[in-house]
UniProtKB/TrEMBL annotation:
Domain of life, per lineage: Bacteria
Protein name: Uncharacterized protein
Organism expressing this protein natively: Fulvimarina pelagi HTCC2506
Length: 30
């Protein structure tokens, strides 16, 4: 569950910064 929460947090940062690169990293971690 910690990995999921971290992925959501990273995804939220990606949305806020509009960064597809961050979203890609989150998808790799998830």
């Amino acid at each position: 569950m910690r990995r999921f929460a971290f992925a959501v947090e990273v995804f939220d940062v990606a949305v806020l910064r509009d960064s597809r690169d961050a979203a890609f990293i989150a998808s790799k971690i998830a």
